[in-house]
Every structure is written in structure tokens, then in C-alpha cells.
Amino acid sequence: MGAVSTAPTSPAARVPFLKGHGTENDFVIVPDPDHRIELSASAVARLCDRRAGIGGDGLLHVVRSAAHPEARAMAADAEWFMDYRNADGSIAEMCGNGVRVFARYLQRAGHVEAGDLAVATRGGVKKVHIAKGADGPVTSATARQDGDITVSMGRAALPRETVTVTVGGRSWPTLNVNMGNPHAVAFVDDLDHAGNLFTEPPYTPSAVYPDGVNVEFVVDRGERHVAMRVHERGSGETRSCGTGACAVAVAAARRDGVDPLVTGVPVTYTVDLPGGRLVITERPDGEIEMAGPAVIVAEGHIAPDLLVPSETAAI
Ligand SMILES: N[C@@H](CCC[C@H](N)C(=O)O)C(=O)O
Questions:
Q1: pLDDT (tens digit, 0 to 9) for every residue of the chain, 315 residues total?
Q2: How far apart are CA 165 and CA 171, in angstroms?
Q3: Which of 18, 25, 212, 253 has the smallest number of CB atoms closer than 10 Å to its CB?
Q4: Is residue 238 part of a domain?
């Protein structure tokens, strides 16, 4: 696929986008079934900019698996590839809220119906279930009637190496949980102790996480019920993180002595985030399921200036 030398300027060539969120983890969605658009890191950062762009914690580039070199091998199992990017333009292996919003977009666009589907990601093929909900135009009312979307996230890995995170002069040990992407989970007494994560990111790359890490701060709210804040690699503090909520549930189950891999009994944690609630179940075979809302809130066209010419193929 060759890049063209001019940005799309005619109305016919305008690039569409949508905006969606899952528990207020928000995404710019760029439908591009045939992979005609090469999105550079700088273009993604411009689109995700909350003042000069559309604004988002990340971007979901929607491409048919068969049309994307990173997904072609998964095309037989999953028609659609979630090419996920963080707000700074960096690439991540997986995004748990993103894949639910991605599925909601596919449903709204008429590519899939409610029920089961498979989505290709850099973290492998994920099975998604869209509960039946209201159809119709995008309004906050109908968005609220949409059923939850559940995704099978695969198994967590727990590498032995851990780090200490520090904010505002306080430090905590963390549990290293890999959900396809890396997480460091810290149990704290008070979520306010995580301080201002915008001005003081809790972690800088080291040998344990050479590519950076997502850091979760967790408090207890009740039995199998926790609340968390998160500082996401490549996006800063966000109001929710799906893979982070899964990592937190896994860490809490080990701490609470209810690891399903040991007990043979599934365990469910309710995880409250600043942007909403996710329900995480870990099964005895290690499979982790995450359920929560996903809504589309807007759609439009991208101003050509946001996509510089050399980054845009024939559209
Ligand atoms: N918000 C996402 C995680 C996005 C990727 C993350 N920032 C990373 O770099 O690993 C989620 O819902 O899981």
C-alpha cells in the first residue's frame, strides 16, 4: 500500500471518525476497513489531543485483519483487527476497554450483530460477547440502554520481578501482572495517596519494564470489591483501564487467598474506577472475563490538517 502525497481535501475523501468510551476510557475510532490510512505516532497524538484535536485516551484504528500485515495471520479466526494506539501515539499490545468499544462500533456500523464475535488484537484473538440492547440513533439515553459487552481477556502472567512505585514521597511494592500488556499493582490505604498522577507519573522505565508500565493503585471497598486509579503508559491518568482492572482482580485474588488456579473455584471482583464499574471473573483455567458498558457518543469527519499528507494513502 503506497502513501499518496496529498491529504484528503474533497468532501468525498474526508476521513470519518467516531468517538466512544467504556467507563469513560475514551477513544477516537477511525474506521479503515481496507487499510488505506497509515497513522503515524504524531497523527495519533494530534487526534487524541484534547484541545487541538478530537481528544481521547487512545485511538482504535478499525481494519480488516486480512488487510493489515500485523493481523493477516489471524484473519481466519477474526475478521476485524483492533490496531490500538495510546494517546501519545505509542503502540500497546492490548486495550480491554478499547476492545469493547471496538465491538460496539462494529455493531453500530452493521458489521456484526449482538452475540459472539472474535476480534484480532496484538495480544491475540479475543472473544467478545455483545449483550442485546437498544438499537437506534446515538443519544445518551439509548447509549445507556445498550447491554454490557464481555470480553475473554485470556490468562494473566505474573512475572517474578517487581518494582516499587513512589508518589508524593510515599512508596509501595507492586505485583507484576501481565495481561498482554504490563501492569504494576499497588495496594494503598487511600486512593488520594496516589497524588496528582498528571504532574507526578509514578514510574520511569527500568529493567523490569523496559517499555514502561501501567500502574494501578487499589483500595478495598468490601468483600471481592475494590476501587482503583490508574496511570496508563502512553496516556497518563485515565478514568478507567480494562486490562488494569483485570490485573487488579488477579492481584486481589492472590492477596485474598482465592486464586482460582489453586482453589478450582471461579472468583468475581467488582472493580470501581473513576469512570464507572467493571466486573472481572477469573476461572479455574485462568481465563479472565471482563464485563462493562461501551458506548458511541459522536461521529464526524477529521479535518485534513490533522492527517498530514505523507501519512495518508489514497482514500
Ligand atoms: N486503557 C486500556 C489500556 C491501554 C494500553 C495501555 N496504556 C498500555 O500502554 O499498555 C485498557 O482498557 O486496557
A1: 333 333 344 444 689 999 999 999 999 999 999 999 999 999 999 999 999 999 999 999 999 999 999 999 999 999 999 999 999 999 999 999 999 999 999 999 999 999 999 999 999 999 999 998 654 444 555 445 578 999 999 999 999 999 999 888 899 999 999 999 999 999 999 999 887 776 777 776 688 999 999 999 999 999 999 999 999 999 999 999 999 999 999 999 999 999 999 999 999 999 999 999 999 999 999 999 999 999 999 999 999 888 875 444 444
A2: 5
A3: 212
A4: yes
Residue 134 lies in a domain: yes
How far does the centroid of ligand 1 lie from the alpha carbon of residue 4, in Å? 31
Residues 93-123 as b/e (b if ≥16 CB within 10 A, e otherwise) read bbbbbbbbbbbbbbbbeebbebeebbbbbbb
Length of the chain: 315
What's the predicted TM-score (pTM) here?
A: 0.91
**Is 299 in the same domain as 282?**
no
- Binding-site positions for substrate: 25, 86, 96-97, 181, 214, 232-233, 242-243
CA of 232 to the centre of ligand 1 (A): 6
Same domain, 70 and 138: yes
Among the residues of the chain, which ranges form H helices?
41-48, 96-108, 140-145, 242-255, 260-263
Residue 233, ligand 1, Cβ within 6 A: yes
306 domain-assigned: yes
Note the ipTM here.
0.99
The answer to whether residues 178 and 128 belong to one domain is no
What is the domain range of residue 75? 11-153+295-311
Cell numbers at 282, concatenated: 477469573
Q: Is residue 1 part of a domain?
A: no
Is residue 243 in contact with ligand 1, taking CB distance under 6 Å?
yes
106 in the same domain as 128: yes
Judged by DSSP in three states, 33 sits in: coil
Which active-site residues does the annotation give?
95, 241
Total domains present in the chain: 2
**Does residue 39's CB lie within 6 angstroms of at least one atom of ligand 1?**
no
- In a shared domain, residues 144 and 259: no
Does 216 share its domain with 128?
Answer: no
